[in-house]
């Protein structure tokens, strides 16, 4: 039986985790979907340089060199970079003549990311292995396609396309390494999916307890505020709109304070393109937003339990001047107010957090590399000016 070696080359962090998770099952899926008469050998490799290059040809060139060094038949790269072709975001590229392809993970959005990427790997592998004619649309039923190089027991049927929101473009006539490209159709939807995908790659839910000073100071401040009668009286006087406005002020204020106190907002430079800069900046904003919102919900839960246990109705009536027994709505309003005020004051605590620690939490691997490159560029410019 013929053996076919396929290398999955990934950038560090999330792409590497996905590649490792899929390694054990890809062989069977490729056998069922593409060719059962060959033995599929899957190997994985993590390469930091894959997560740095922003040029498509540069990435595929590096993938091709790695493929030759490891004596693989095919190589597919998983990158955490958003890739562009003109103004369009690209989900996947393939160079049939060089037997290499790349898949941009952020374009798949959030969960179920692994299932989508597994389907995309199979489809890109089919592009390389079967060498489909450019005039045929790969989004169609694969059984109707005519491969240039026929294989025995070729694909019977593929699952629903994970690239269904893309258009397949033949770029073999252009002066690029790419022969086939999948570009996203909707500019608005593609940008939203990329932002969600890049935020997911940052894994904000794992960073909650890394902001321990924010959580600790927010809880301490909220507890301190609760010993005064003024917040209690305000809680029964505020309308829902005021509660919502105060909550938004607390969340947005904390996000903005963290960004500018730790210099997380990438500024315009001669080297950095605006479209990359905007994507990274908004990813940082959404990542921090997710962390702050999770922290807010956690604080709300703690305060709700504390006030429900330690504040009897008689005490609530005495401090607020109510003539009736307080309902759950009044308790809810008090907890909401204390949580918002505590979060807003707790933002100060993030100012003393370690700068590198915050950047590790809110930046992906590529974003950190980009930040350091820009810092070096600015240092060189300053040295030249002297």
TrEMBL record:
The chain crosses the membrane at residues 243-265, 285-310, 330-352. It comes from the Bacteria. Keywords: Membrane, Transmembrane, Transmembrane helix. This is 5,10-methylene-tetrahydrofolate dehydrogenase. It comes from Virgibacillus profundi.
């Amino acid at each position: 039986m013929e053996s076919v070696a396929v290398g999955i080359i990934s950038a560090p962090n999330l792409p590497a985790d996905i590649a490792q998770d899929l390694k054990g099952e890809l062989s069977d899926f490729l056998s069922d979907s593409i060719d059962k008469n060959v033995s599929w050998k899957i190997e994985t490799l993590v390469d930091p340089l894959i997560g740095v290059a922003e040029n498509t040809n540069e990435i595929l060139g590096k993938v091709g060199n790695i493929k030759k060094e490891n004596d693989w038949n095919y190589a597919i790269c998983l990158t955490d970079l958003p890739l562009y072709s003109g103004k369009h975001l690209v989900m996947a590229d393939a160079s049939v003549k060089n037997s290499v392809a790349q898949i941009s993970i952020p374009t798949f959005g959030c969960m179920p990311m692994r299932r989508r990427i597994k389907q995309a790997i199979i489809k890109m592998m089919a592009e390389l292995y079967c060498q489909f004619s450019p005039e045929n649309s790969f989004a169609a039923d694969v059984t109707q396609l005519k491969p240039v190089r026929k294989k025995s027991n070729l694909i019977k049927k593929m699952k629903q396309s994970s690239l269904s929101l893309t258009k397949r473009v033949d770029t073999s006539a252009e002066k690029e390494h790419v022969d086939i490209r999948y570009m996203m159709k909707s500019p608005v939807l593609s940008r939203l999916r990329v932002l969600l995908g890049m935020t997911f790659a940052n894994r904000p839910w794992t960073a909650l307890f890394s902001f321990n000073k924010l959580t600790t100071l927010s809880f301490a401040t909220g507890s301190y505020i609760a010993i005064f009668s003024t917040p209690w009286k305000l809680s029964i006087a505020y309308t829902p709109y005021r509660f919502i406005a105060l909550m938004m002020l607390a969340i947005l204020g904390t996000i903005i304070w963290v960004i500018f106190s730790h210099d997380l907002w990438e500024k315009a430079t001669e080297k950095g393109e605006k479209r990359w800069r905007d994507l990274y900046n908004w990813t940082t904003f959404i990542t921090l937003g997710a962390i702050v919102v999770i922290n807010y919900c956690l604080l709300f839960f703690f305060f709700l339990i504390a006030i429900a246990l330690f504040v009897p109705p008689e005490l609530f009536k005495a401090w607020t001047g109510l003539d009736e027994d307080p309902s759950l709505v009044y308790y809810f309003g008090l907890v909401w107010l204390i949580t918002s005020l505590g979060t807003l004051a707790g933002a100060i605590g993030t100012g003393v957090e370690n700068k590198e620690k915050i950047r590790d939490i809110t930046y992906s691997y590529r974003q950190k590399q980009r930040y350091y490159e820009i810092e070096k560029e600015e240092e060189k410019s300053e040295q030249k000016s002297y």
